[in-house]
Automatic annotation (TrEMBL):
Pfam families attached to this UniProt entry: AAA-ATPase_like, PDDEXK_9
The species this protein was found in: Ectothiorhodospira magna
InterPro entries: AAA-ATPase-like_dom, PDDEXK_9
Protein name per the record: PD-(D/E)XK nuclease superfamily protein
Residues covered by the AAA-ATPase-like domain: 8-87
């Protein structure tokens, strides 16, 4: 008689679930439905048209989470029901009205979801590109990091930009950065809040902290990305950690469909 498996209640480590005698159901095939039916999967409510990139902090109602019509199911409901999102917080802001905050169960799930979506985001060689990205970060080689992302954007399909209004906004470009970095399972915080505002993305890896600010030059003057990082003092909240901090201002051109500035200042 086969040994019964345990439910992985409270177990956050993917490796422990797979090797510790717990039930595990691979729901990756459901991702094909997401990939085939749309282009953008960053569902949290943005401040400026798509700038919030994580599925973390997604707020929804109970009716959506309990919707089972596959032909009409919302993307966030599908992700919840297949285990890619879980409930992080439950609130009752007024009597009888319940609000649920969803997020990734753990970093392994976040990484696996982004790995599965990268080919649909125009990255057919996603595995090789992730290795290249990891090597650059591991060596703290910022020129190589710049070269890597420029090559990445150079390979994105032209149809992404043609008749696509979202390509006018920084969130469109930042989403490529986020998915590519998140697929490595890195510690990433988007719209990292401090007392002077929110930096677009913070990456904490291998003893270094990288603060990214993204701008589109058709909307703001060139040089504003790095300048905002300095003027707002976004590095201040991280200084107590004793790690080197690197401000990285990334500027995109809608017309050139490419990164035109990758300004770095280590503080």
């Amino acid at each position: 008689m086969a040994t019964p498996l345990n439910l992985p209640i409270g177990v956050q480590a993917f490796s422990k679930i797979r090797t510790g005698g717990f039930y595990y159901v691979d729901k990756t095939p459901y991702l094909h439905q997401l990939i085939d039916e749309g282009s953008y999967y960053f569902l949290s409510r943005p401040r400026r048209f798509g700038k919030s990139l994580l599925l973390d902090t997604l707020e929804t109602e109970a009716a959506l989470l309990g919707h089972f019509d596959v032909d009409e199911i919302a993307t966030e409901a599908l992700l919840f029901q297949t285990g890619y999102l879980t409930v992080h917080k439950v609130e009752q802001p007024m009597t009888g009205y319940w609000l649920y905050t969803l997020g990734y169960p753990n970093r392994e799930v976040e990484a696996s979801l982004n790995q599965a979506l990268l080919p649909a985001l125009g990255m057919p060689r996603a595995a090789q590109q992730r290795i290249s990205l990891f090597r650059a970060l591991q060596a703290h080689d910022l020129p190589a990091l710049e070269t890597h992302f420029k090559a990445l954007f150079a390979g994105l399909p032209h149809d992404w930009y043609r008749n696509n209004p979202i390509a006018q906004y920084e969130g469109h470009y930042a989403s490529v950065f986020y998915s590519h970095l998140a697929a490595l399972g890195l510690a990433i915080t988007v719209e990292d809040a401090g007392n002077t505002g929110r930096v677009d993305m913070t990456v904490d890896f291998n003893g270094h902290i990288y603060l990214f600010e993204f701008k589109v030059v058709e909307q703001v003057p060139e040089g504003r990305a790095l300048q905002q990082l300095q003027d707002k003092g976004y590095a201040d909240k991280h200084r107590g950690q004793g790690k080197p901090i690197h401000l990285i201002g990334v500027e995109f051109s809608r017309e050139q469909q490419q990164i035109i500035a990758f300004d770095v200042l280590s503080v």
